[in-house]
Amino acid sequence: MAQKQKIINDPVYGFITINHPLLFSIISHPYYQRLRRIHQMALAYLVYPGAVHTRLLHSLGAYHLMCNAVNELRAKGVYITPEEEMAAKAGILLHDVGHGPFSHALESQLLQGVHHEDISLMIMKIMNTQLGGQLQMAIDIFTNNYPKKFLHQLISGQLDVDRMDYLTRDSFFTGVSEGVIGYDRILKMLTVHNGELMVEEKGIYSIEKFLVARRQMYWQVYLHKTVLSAEKMLVNLLQRVRDLIAQGATDLHTHCGIDFFLFNFDGVMNLDTLDKFCKLDDGDLLVAVKKWGTHTDMVLQTLANRLLNRQLLKINIQSDPFEADFVAHKLQAAATQLGISLEEAGYFVFAGEADNTMYTTNKEGINILFKDGSVKDITAIDDPLINQTISAPIKKFFVCYL
Amino acid sequence: MAQKQKIINDPVYGFITINHPLLFSIISHPYYQRLRRIHQMALAYLVYPGAVHTRLLHSLGAYHLMCNAVNELRAKGVYITPEEEMAAKAGILLHDVGHGPFSHALESQLLQGVHHEDISLMIMKIMNTQLGGQLQMAIDIFTNNYPKKFLHQLISGQLDVDRMDYLTRDSFFTGVSEGVIGYDRILKMLTVHNGELMVEEKGIYSIEKFLVARRQMYWQVYLHKTVLSAEKMLVNLLQRVRDLIAQGATDLHTHCGIDFFLFNFDGVMNLDTLDKFCKLDDGDLLVAVKKWGTHTDMVLQTLANRLLNRQLLKINIQSDPFEADFVAHKLQAAATQLGISLEEAGYFVFAGEADNTMYTTNKEGINILFKDGSVKDITAIDDPLINQTISAPIKKFFVCYL
Amino acid sequence: MAQKQKIINDPVYGFITINHPLLFSIISHPYYQRLRRIHQMALAYLVYPGAVHTRLLHSLGAYHLMCNAVNELRAKGVYITPEEEMAAKAGILLHDVGHGPFSHALESQLLQGVHHEDISLMIMKIMNTQLGGQLQMAIDIFTNNYPKKFLHQLISGQLDVDRMDYLTRDSFFTGVSEGVIGYDRILKMLTVHNGELMVEEKGIYSIEKFLVARRQMYWQVYLHKTVLSAEKMLVNLLQRVRDLIAQGATDLHTHCGIDFFLFNFDGVMNLDTLDKFCKLDDGDLLVAVKKWGTHTDMVLQTLANRLLNRQLLKINIQSDPFEADFVAHKLQAAATQLGISLEEAGYFVFAGEADNTMYTTNKEGINILFKDGSVKDITAIDDPLINQTISAPIKKFFVCYL
Amino acid sequence: MAQKQKIINDPVYGFITINHPLLFSIISHPYYQRLRRIHQMALAYLVYPGAVHTRLLHSLGAYHLMCNAVNELRAKGVYITPEEEMAAKAGILLHDVGHGPFSHALESQLLQGVHHEDISLMIMKIMNTQLGGQLQMAIDIFTNNYPKKFLHQLISGQLDVDRMDYLTRDSFFTGVSEGVIGYDRILKMLTVHNGELMVEEKGIYSIEKFLVARRQMYWQVYLHKTVLSAEKMLVNLLQRVRDLIAQGATDLHTHCGIDFFLFNFDGVMNLDTLDKFCKLDDGDLLVAVKKWGTHTDMVLQTLANRLLNRQLLKINIQSDPFEADFVAHKLQAAATQLGISLEEAGYFVFAGEADNTMYTTNKEGINILFKDGSVKDITAIDDPLINQTISAPIKKFFVCYL
After folding, report:
1. What is the spatial distance between Cα C54 and Cα C165, in angstroms, rounded to a whole number?
2. Is there a domain that residue C22 lies in?
3. Are C179 and C220 in contact (CB under 8 A)?
4. Which of A124, A303, B88, C373 has the fewest CB neighbours in a 10 Å radius?
5. How many domains does chain B have?
6. Structure pTM?
7. Is residue B103, in this structure, part of any structural domain at all?
């Protein structure tokens, strides 16, 4: 009479229930299980020591919110078939499955720009074949080719369960209470109108809260200056490795999975290279960093050991660009201090811009459904806080130095 | 006027304050920073996906409770000098610094029985030399050679801040609410009498709660049958590697830090070997497991891939030993299924006992100070719940199989 | 398309959803709304200042857990019709509707022993008539005359949603973390076997936790000695009023709703007296106490003002009866101090027993369903903690004095 | 050696410690204890059923935050004498002691405009006399006549512990998570510069969060339209009573403490009238409302019973004034429905404005202390969110009707 059911403890939501063979198939797949070994927040744990939660847990959390969202919408009379329900759940479980370890650094330095979203889709297609087509509707929803647009919007939109979970979860594990959103209230305010996901009028303050919390998380966590410094150091470290290889160095092998991507990857993802990619996890990069910490190249060694032992580059951050003089002065100081060339000093001293483009993609807006039946985009609402939060340029300038 | 102060976000306690140069020296030491890369709960995250918190965070948490304990005791008139305060804080920060990755498996298979507590002391002594003797009092307290016994008892006793933090923290990250103890209330109930740490009479119910919560954590988390299965698999995996090496295999190098302990370690910890030990972290073992997943030895390969992809051994658990017949039958089945010898099947099918000896060492008891000035050990209290919880044998039998 | 739905904020569970006309009818009834004006925990707020939550909120909370329980059971294949679902929800909303202000004191002193459970049933019957019989099934379930016994057991049993809510809620509002139970986990462990409510085998530790938490709440909260002192003072205060009336006093009218029950009630509850009862709330008693604080009778005035201003009687509590000498000595001292007779001093100095009979009625036991299909009562489980918790006599002796 | 110490459980902060004879004297005073019988949030519990916490608990909570604030400031080297510490704690305990039941309605209708802050000061002076001058410094701080301005600012300023507690506490008890502020982080960001309370530069995001949370609480809770409706009904109810008395009615006595203020109070607060005021609590008004529910005047009876049974007036709310036609139409409808005159219908149908002036008094601004030593008011910070939150007009128009 009863179907197989598994309950997973989650410190954020209490219990997450898995109760369908398709879901079990996805979760037990090695490509999914590897998400256990990849930090959701990359190097943020160097600032927020509790932020070591994994991409697997985020995926399960977003799935849990999807379960709740489906229940709430159905209770309001929105028609969702059992197949659609399962497809939406499968889709959200797999929405981030293409992430690799320290994605930001990895994609720019080792993957030649192949984007994690494309990899997610490739993995979904592979699994779909393995599962005899059971994931086809999930793929259609994920790629926004399914007629009921709101299902796609729940997975990927300005107010999707992905964001609701990561803001909630990252806030929970960092201990930054400013990022708490009222996810349960937002879910209760969702509705569907003309096939599109909407927020009921009385949910405006919850949306306001959501947008402000997101903004707080950008500046306090995701773009926290020390986190930024650590991530830039990792990028530069990998850049140095590639530069040395380009110069002919032969002693940079790590004997781990990333060697392929350092030495042999040509930018083409096929079944074979994807499988290699799916064997990578945080451990490979951390072991490599430890190894490079004993390399004879002073730049490489210093970056590696400093990253490992949390002796991060100093970083200043402000609303305007930094003076060229300031950067030049720091460059000279670094060259002198480490006994390296000015060019090499550029691995330690550099200026740049931080913005939130990695977090706000051009997902569609948030629609509000008013009691009189009219629909407005959130940016058209006469709410000064919302307008400012949305329109405020989230961009700052930084400079790192020794 | 103001001294340097750093605030660390902790999802459990909110904020942890570091405000003394000695504490900064300890925390920034590479031997301490490596605790960022070691899971507090080893493989428990295979069952509780949120349980990926690190030994560094536990150490900071225990330190935070020590800060509170010192404040509470002083408010009750207990005299603690600034030097003693700093020594107690340094001692608790370092109490677990000798842990390696997956300590249980590591110590039994690779360290030839060298215990993490001995390593902690060695590291403290090395740091003490580096810091010009500033850690001497901390070492005296840690080794219980300091006259004010209660300071040692706060670090290492039946009711120390170590336990208070790990029960609280493990409960928090696993999401197992049954392990919640009222640590803040317990701290308020602490007092000192004749130089010994005591609990005030009115704190008895809090102690009862503490003991019951600890018991719940044993069975629901630390000795959870699936966690047990995973840990035994890791032990067997390392055993298999060692057995193959003993048989002359030469293709088991991982090119990571554990190679030294696999091939060269003679059981003697000196400055050099300790330094090698202090370079290990979870990443080394996980990378090794991945590597061994492609080895030609069927036993090794199978154990490695199953552990990696969470295809764990089945496990039964009960109060009585299992029938020999049952085990023999399962052995035979495994041999047949994998096409291996009966002896090799023993890596997959085996019986054993689980008890809590790894959690309850012979630390001294808990003393209750009554209003009339008398002192009783907790086991002498007429409280049926406490007696049962303490005296109940915590031991069960298990059998793992394919 | 969507039905009317109302969301109520609850600090404990987040949101409670009301979504059926029958539920709206119940909740908007004046007999139900009066529960807003009655403290769930009577005078416990004199010790736990946060414990001022109302019987209405507890009722809504228990209803919320019932909603969850129905969902969980259905997900396991238990068949529950929409009518049964609504009857169970109506039943739990009304299970405590018969409580008056400070029930313990009220029932013993003013209601001549009419019990709140009988009043609940009377109110349900009146509402049933008003609602054209819509509550008949709820009444059948409440009185255990409905075939599916598990529905009754969810409302009134050793592990009902009533208890789950009040332990959770009282723990929340008092701030006594020791009373936290894992209600969400318990709900997930519930099942139905042969028409009876059962707990799955793997839920044993949750039940253990539940029983221990309940025990902790008895001693730390419900039978906290200062709470006990306050409640006994209120009983004695009302007793004094009745004694003075019996002696012919004519100046004790309060001009509030309790006058009828002080002067005219003959112990018979009919439509008229029940309506008078349903107009009472905490305000009536508190106004009466204030009024009596200016009465000329020294005993009455002193009891009233002391209760009002939290100058409570001292209280000792222990496992054995108190010596008669001790009580006699305190009686004499009180008579001297207040200038009253020894008999009158008995309002301030008295011994008694406290036990948990007001909390553990003879509700049926908790059944555990084992994986092999066998069923055992919880008391037959070989778990020392459970046995001790259940069998331990919860009875203590107290003496109050000035 | 140890001083007397009392620990109070608080669901919000865990434990509140009272450890000085002066504090015990204040808390045990009947004028303070009466705050146990006055809801912090007046009628808001009709919308948020958990919001029944008392003014006493808020007072204790604000005191707790003051204890923390003093500790934090001292840890940063700010000099605070033990006398100043005690005065600040006494001052915050008493800052709201002048509140009566349902202050908003009471002050406008029964107290002839005597303001609760003036009453607080009067009570402090009375207690000061009773305590032999021990409260003099507290009074000086409260009235901002003490040289160290930051002590006054902690009690009464834009960022005082009063606000920090009530936002935190009201958010907790209503269950409106949008009102959560990071009070612990704000406290850690406080500092003193030139004798004034400041926020460190790195605390700007916490202040942003604080301001947004406050805004959310205005609209979701304090000025929630249904709360507004209930409070306006209570004001109109008392207005009707006064109008009837003015017309010569003689049957409106309640035999409770408010009779004096209905019939005899001349607007002068002296020792005697203040004592009468200090005997009032929520119970008096609720009993009065019940009594008036049986009065023959249709307007009075209807208002009373509707308020009692939560049959509140409908209310519309918007950014612009309502059309006079709409109000006129509703007035006519109410007169017809209840069979009363158009003038009498004005008790049920009326328009008005709601703004936050009752919450934002002209307390001084929030100063930010930058790392370079400069000081800026928060309104001068280049942060669009802060500017909008502060400058946005918080004013809306409402109309109530049957």
Report:
1. 13
2. yes
3. yes
4. C373
5. 1
6. 0.94
7. yes
